[in-house]
Amino acid sequence: MNSSRRSLAFPLVKAEEIIKNLQIREPSEIQIRDISMVRGVYVKEKILEGSEARLLRKGSIGIITVNNRIPEEGRKRFAIAHELGHFELHTVSQLVLCAEEDMYVWNKNKEQEIEANEFAASILMPTEIFAPHFDAGPPNIEIVRDLSGKFRTTLTATALRYVQLSSEPCAATITKNGIIKWYKKSPSFDFHIKVGEKLSPIIEDLDSHDVEEVPTRPTKVPASAWLAGVKNEEALIFEQSIALRSYGVILSLLWICDKIQRSHRRYDEDEPEFDLANPFTPDGKRWRW
Predict the structure, then answer these.
(1) Least buried of 113, 173, 191, 219, by fewest C-beta within 10 Å?
(2) Using 50, 70 and 90 to split pLDDT, how confident is the model at 98?
(3) pTM score of the predicted model
(4) Helices (H), the chain
(5) Which residues pair with 105 in a beta bridge?
(6) Strand partners, 251
(7) Degrees, nearest 5: CA angle 218-219-223
(8) What average pLDDT does the chain have?
Protein backbone atom coordinates (compact mmCIF):
# COMPACT_ATOMS: atom_id res chain seq x y z
CA MET A 1 0.00 0.00 0.00
CA ASN A 2 2.71 2.50 0.97
CA SER A 3 4.79 1.82 -2.15
CA SER A 4 1.66 2.38 -4.31
CA ARG A 5 0.97 5.72 -2.63
CA ARG A 6 4.60 6.78 -3.06
CA SER A 7 4.47 5.93 -6.77
CA LEU A 8 1.47 8.25 -7.25
CA ALA A 9 3.24 11.21 -5.64
CA PHE A 10 5.69 11.65 -8.53
CA PRO A 11 3.07 12.24 -11.27
CA LEU A 12 1.39 14.89 -9.11
CA VAL A 13 4.68 16.62 -8.32
CA LYS A 14 5.77 16.52 -11.97
CA ALA A 15 2.47 17.95 -13.24
CA GLU A 16 2.38 20.75 -10.71
CA GLU A 17 6.04 21.56 -11.34
CA ILE A 18 5.19 22.13 -15.02
CA ILE A 19 2.25 24.38 -14.07
CA LYS A 20 4.47 26.38 -11.70
CA ASN A 21 7.32 26.75 -14.21
CA LEU A 22 4.89 28.04 -16.84
CA GLN A 23 3.49 30.52 -14.28
CA ILE A 24 -0.05 29.32 -14.89
CA ARG A 25 -2.41 30.83 -12.33
CA GLU A 26 -5.91 30.66 -13.84
CA PRO A 27 -8.07 27.82 -15.24
CA SER A 28 -8.27 29.61 -18.60
CA GLU A 29 -4.47 29.42 -18.88
CA ILE A 30 -4.43 25.60 -18.74
CA GLN A 31 -4.19 25.15 -22.51
CA ILE A 32 -3.11 21.52 -22.69
CA ARG A 33 -2.11 21.64 -26.37
CA ASP A 34 0.13 24.67 -25.77
CA ILE A 35 1.59 23.09 -22.63
CA SER A 36 2.38 19.96 -24.64
CA MET A 37 4.09 22.02 -27.35
CA VAL A 38 6.26 23.78 -24.76
CA ARG A 39 7.27 20.36 -23.45
CA GLY A 40 8.34 19.27 -26.93
CA VAL A 41 5.20 17.41 -27.95
CA TYR A 42 3.07 18.30 -30.99
CA VAL A 43 -0.65 17.44 -30.78
CA LYS A 44 -2.74 16.52 -33.80
CA GLU A 45 -6.12 14.91 -34.41
CA LYS A 46 -7.13 12.15 -36.79
CA ILE A 47 -9.38 9.09 -36.88
CA LEU A 48 -7.85 6.32 -34.79
CA GLU A 49 -9.10 2.76 -34.91
CA GLY A 50 -8.85 0.82 -31.67
CA SER A 51 -7.26 3.56 -29.58
CA GLU A 52 -8.28 6.80 -27.93
CA ALA A 53 -4.88 8.44 -28.36
CA ARG A 54 -1.26 7.54 -28.99
CA LEU A 55 2.20 8.91 -28.32
CA LEU A 56 5.18 8.61 -30.64
CA ARG A 57 8.49 9.66 -29.11
CA LYS A 58 11.93 10.25 -30.61
CA GLY A 59 14.41 11.39 -28.00
CA SER A 60 13.22 14.61 -26.36
CA ILE A 61 10.38 15.29 -28.80
CA GLY A 62 7.08 13.57 -29.43
CA ILE A 63 3.78 13.56 -31.28
CA ILE A 64 0.42 12.97 -29.59
CA THR A 65 -2.37 11.88 -31.90
CA VAL A 66 -5.87 12.07 -30.40
CA ASN A 67 -8.95 10.45 -31.91
CA ASN A 68 -11.03 13.18 -33.54
CA ARG A 69 -14.16 11.08 -32.97
CA ILE A 70 -14.07 11.85 -29.23
CA PRO A 71 -17.21 13.97 -28.83
CA GLU A 72 -16.57 15.84 -25.57
CA GLU A 73 -13.89 18.51 -25.25
CA GLY A 74 -13.22 17.55 -21.62
CA ARG A 75 -12.63 13.93 -22.57
CA LYS A 76 -10.33 14.98 -25.43
CA ARG A 77 -8.31 17.24 -23.12
CA PHE A 78 -7.92 14.38 -20.67
CA ALA A 79 -6.68 12.09 -23.46
CA ILE A 80 -4.01 14.62 -24.45
CA ALA A 81 -2.97 15.16 -20.82
CA HIS A 82 -2.81 11.38 -20.30
CA GLU A 83 -0.40 10.95 -23.25
CA LEU A 84 1.67 13.90 -22.06
CA GLY A 85 1.90 12.05 -18.75
CA HIS A 86 3.41 9.06 -20.54
CA PHE A 87 5.88 11.39 -22.29
CA GLU A 88 6.98 13.04 -19.03
CA LEU A 89 7.02 9.94 -16.80
CA HIS A 90 7.84 6.92 -18.97
CA THR A 91 10.86 7.88 -21.04
CA VAL A 92 11.75 4.34 -22.09
CA SER A 93 8.59 3.91 -24.18
CA GLN A 94 8.95 5.06 -27.80
CA LEU A 95 5.39 4.23 -28.93
CA VAL A 96 2.40 4.22 -26.60
CA LEU A 97 -1.08 3.24 -27.79
CA CYS A 98 -3.87 3.92 -25.28
CA ALA A 99 -7.29 2.38 -25.70
CA GLU A 100 -10.36 3.84 -24.02
CA GLU A 101 -9.94 1.44 -21.10
CA ASP A 102 -6.36 2.63 -20.51
CA MET A 103 -7.39 6.25 -20.70
CA TYR A 104 -10.36 6.17 -18.39
CA VAL A 105 -9.71 3.25 -16.08
CA TRP A 106 -7.46 3.20 -13.07
CA ASN A 107 -6.23 -0.36 -13.21
CA LYS A 108 -4.15 -1.50 -10.27
CA ASN A 109 -2.37 -3.96 -12.54
CA LYS A 110 -1.29 -1.19 -14.92
CA GLU A 111 0.98 1.10 -12.96
CA GLN A 112 1.91 3.32 -15.91
CA GLU A 113 -1.76 3.97 -16.74
CA ILE A 114 -2.47 4.91 -13.11
CA GLU A 115 0.45 7.33 -13.20
CA ALA A 116 -0.63 8.85 -16.53
CA ASN A 117 -4.18 9.35 -15.21
CA GLU A 118 -2.90 10.92 -11.99
CA PHE A 119 -0.67 13.24 -14.02
CA ALA A 120 -3.59 14.19 -16.30
CA ALA A 121 -5.89 15.04 -13.39
CA SER A 122 -3.16 17.05 -11.68
CA ILE A 123 -2.13 19.09 -14.72
CA LEU A 124 -5.73 19.83 -15.79
CA MET A 125 -6.89 20.58 -12.24
CA PRO A 126 -3.78 21.67 -10.28
CA THR A 127 -4.30 21.74 -6.53
CA GLU A 128 -3.30 25.38 -6.01
CA ILE A 129 -5.63 26.58 -8.78
CA PHE A 130 -8.48 24.07 -8.34
CA ALA A 131 -8.97 24.06 -4.55
CA PRO A 132 -9.53 27.84 -4.09
CA HIS A 133 -12.59 27.58 -6.34
CA PHE A 134 -14.39 25.41 -3.76
CA ASP A 135 -17.25 27.09 -1.93
CA ALA A 136 -16.92 27.33 1.84
CA GLY A 137 -20.31 25.64 2.24
CA PRO A 138 -21.24 21.94 2.10
CA PRO A 139 -20.55 19.78 -0.97
CA ASN A 140 -22.86 20.38 -3.90
CA ILE A 141 -23.10 18.95 -7.41
CA GLU A 142 -23.48 22.50 -8.73
CA ILE A 143 -19.97 23.27 -7.46
CA VAL A 144 -18.72 20.28 -9.47
CA ARG A 145 -20.64 21.45 -12.55
CA ASP A 146 -19.20 24.95 -12.19
CA LEU A 147 -15.66 23.59 -11.77
CA SER A 148 -16.15 21.35 -14.81
CA GLY A 149 -17.02 24.40 -16.89
CA LYS A 150 -14.15 26.51 -15.58
CA PHE A 151 -11.51 23.81 -16.05
CA ARG A 152 -13.07 22.29 -19.21
CA THR A 153 -13.02 18.79 -17.75
CA THR A 154 -15.65 16.06 -17.68
CA LEU A 155 -18.15 16.03 -14.82
CA THR A 156 -16.90 12.68 -13.54
CA ALA A 157 -13.19 13.58 -13.64
CA THR A 158 -14.06 16.86 -11.90
CA ALA A 159 -16.13 15.10 -9.22
CA LEU A 160 -13.27 12.69 -8.51
CA ARG A 161 -10.78 15.52 -8.16
CA TYR A 162 -13.24 17.46 -6.00
CA VAL A 163 -13.66 14.68 -3.43
CA GLN A 164 -9.93 13.89 -3.55
CA LEU A 165 -9.11 17.43 -2.39
CA SER A 166 -12.18 18.15 -0.25
CA SER A 167 -11.92 18.51 3.52
CA GLU A 168 -15.59 17.54 3.84
CA PRO A 169 -16.69 13.89 4.40
CA CYS A 170 -17.99 13.25 0.88
CA ALA A 171 -17.86 10.70 -1.93
CA ALA A 172 -18.62 10.56 -5.65
CA THR A 173 -20.41 7.46 -6.96
CA ILE A 174 -21.60 6.01 -10.25
CA THR A 175 -24.75 3.85 -10.42
CA LYS A 176 -26.24 2.04 -13.39
CA ASN A 177 -29.67 0.40 -13.39
CA GLY A 178 -29.84 0.89 -9.62
CA ILE A 179 -26.51 -0.92 -9.00
CA ILE A 180 -23.64 0.90 -7.31
CA LYS A 181 -20.68 0.52 -9.67
CA TRP A 182 -17.84 2.44 -8.03
CA TYR A 183 -16.99 5.38 -5.83
CA LYS A 184 -14.19 7.68 -4.74
CA LYS A 185 -14.17 9.22 -1.28
CA SER A 186 -12.52 12.16 0.46
CA PRO A 187 -9.93 11.49 3.19
CA SER A 188 -12.47 12.29 5.93
CA PHE A 189 -15.26 10.05 4.55
CA ASP A 190 -14.79 7.17 7.00
CA PHE A 191 -17.12 4.61 5.42
CA HIS A 192 -17.16 2.19 2.52
CA ILE A 193 -19.99 2.21 -0.03
CA LYS A 194 -21.84 -0.95 -1.03
CA VAL A 195 -20.27 -1.49 -4.44
CA GLY A 196 -22.14 -4.10 -6.48
CA GLU A 197 -25.32 -3.93 -4.39
CA LYS A 198 -28.70 -2.71 -5.55
CA LEU A 199 -29.99 0.50 -4.05
CA SER A 200 -33.11 0.36 -1.93
CA PRO A 201 -36.40 0.91 -3.86
CA ILE A 202 -36.76 4.44 -2.47
CA ILE A 203 -33.28 5.50 -3.56
CA GLU A 204 -33.60 3.64 -6.86
CA ASP A 205 -36.77 5.62 -7.57
CA LEU A 206 -34.88 8.86 -6.96
CA ASP A 207 -32.10 7.75 -9.28
CA SER A 208 -34.26 6.05 -11.90
CA HIS A 209 -33.51 6.81 -15.54
CA ASP A 210 -37.24 6.42 -16.22
CA VAL A 211 -38.14 9.58 -14.33
CA GLU A 212 -38.16 12.74 -16.33
CA GLU A 213 -35.51 14.45 -14.23
CA VAL A 214 -33.18 13.25 -11.50
CA PRO A 215 -33.68 15.48 -8.42
CA THR A 216 -31.02 18.18 -8.56
CA ARG A 217 -31.37 19.46 -5.00
CA PRO A 218 -29.63 17.73 -2.08
CA THR A 219 -31.91 15.11 -0.53
CA LYS A 220 -31.60 13.31 2.81
CA VAL A 221 -31.64 9.53 2.32
CA PRO A 222 -31.03 6.54 4.63
CA ALA A 223 -27.30 6.11 5.23
CA SER A 224 -27.71 2.32 5.26
CA ALA A 225 -28.88 2.42 1.62
CA TRP A 226 -25.38 3.46 0.55
CA LEU A 227 -22.95 2.75 3.39
CA ALA A 228 -21.61 -0.58 4.61
CA GLY A 229 -21.47 -1.30 8.34
CA VAL A 230 -24.10 1.22 9.52
CA LYS A 231 -25.59 0.35 12.91
CA ASN A 232 -28.27 3.02 13.35
CA GLU A 233 -30.85 2.54 10.60
CA GLU A 234 -32.32 6.01 11.21
CA ALA A 235 -29.10 7.81 10.25
CA LEU A 236 -29.30 9.98 7.16
CA ILE A 237 -26.82 11.27 4.57
CA PHE A 238 -27.19 13.86 1.86
CA GLU A 239 -27.37 12.74 -1.76
CA GLN A 240 -27.40 14.89 -4.89
CA SER A 241 -27.38 13.34 -8.35
CA ILE A 242 -27.11 14.14 -12.01
CA ALA A 243 -28.03 11.87 -14.93
CA LEU A 244 -25.29 11.33 -17.50
CA ARG A 245 -27.84 10.17 -20.04
CA SER A 246 -25.49 9.63 -22.98
CA TYR A 247 -23.71 7.00 -20.86
CA GLY A 248 -26.81 5.62 -19.11
CA VAL A 249 -25.43 6.24 -15.60
CA ILE A 250 -26.06 8.43 -12.57
CA LEU A 251 -23.30 10.49 -10.96
CA SER A 252 -24.06 11.10 -7.28
CA LEU A 253 -22.38 13.20 -4.64
CA LEU A 254 -22.85 11.93 -1.07
CA TRP A 255 -21.90 13.62 2.18
CA ILE A 256 -22.33 12.92 5.89
CA CYS A 257 -24.84 15.05 7.79
CA ASP A 258 -25.49 12.88 10.90
CA LYS A 259 -23.31 11.09 13.39
CA ILE A 260 -23.37 7.49 12.17
CA GLN A 261 -22.71 4.51 14.41
CA ARG A 262 -20.85 1.56 12.95
CA SER A 263 -21.70 -2.08 13.43
CA HIS A 264 -19.08 -4.11 15.31
CA ARG A 265 -17.57 -5.25 12.04
CA ARG A 266 -14.91 -2.90 10.72
CA TYR A 267 -14.46 -2.96 6.98
CA ASP A 268 -10.89 -3.31 5.76
CA GLU A 269 -9.42 0.06 4.83
CA ASP A 270 -8.01 -1.57 1.71
CA GLU A 271 -11.48 -2.56 0.47
CA PRO A 272 -11.65 -1.54 -3.21
CA GLU A 273 -13.63 1.53 -4.20
CA PHE A 274 -14.79 -0.16 -7.39
CA ASP A 275 -16.34 -3.37 -8.64
CA LEU A 276 -13.50 -5.56 -9.94
CA ALA A 277 -15.83 -8.27 -11.26
CA ASN A 278 -18.05 -6.08 -13.41
CA PRO A 279 -17.06 -5.27 -17.00
CA PHE A 280 -18.54 -1.80 -16.51
CA THR A 281 -15.36 -0.95 -14.58
CA PRO A 282 -12.75 -3.51 -15.65
CA ASP A 283 -10.27 -3.78 -12.77
CA GLY A 284 -10.64 -0.16 -11.74
CA LYS A 285 -12.21 3.25 -12.03
CA ARG A 286 -13.49 4.35 -15.42
CA TRP A 287 -12.87 8.03 -16.11
CA ARG A 288 -14.91 8.09 -19.25
CA TRP A 289 -17.86 10.21 -18.14
Answers:
(1) 219
(2) low
(3) 0.80
(4) 2-21, 32-38, 73-89, 100-104, 111-124, 127-130, 141-151, 155-165, 201-206, 223-226
(5) 286
(6) 174, 242
(7) 120
(8) 80
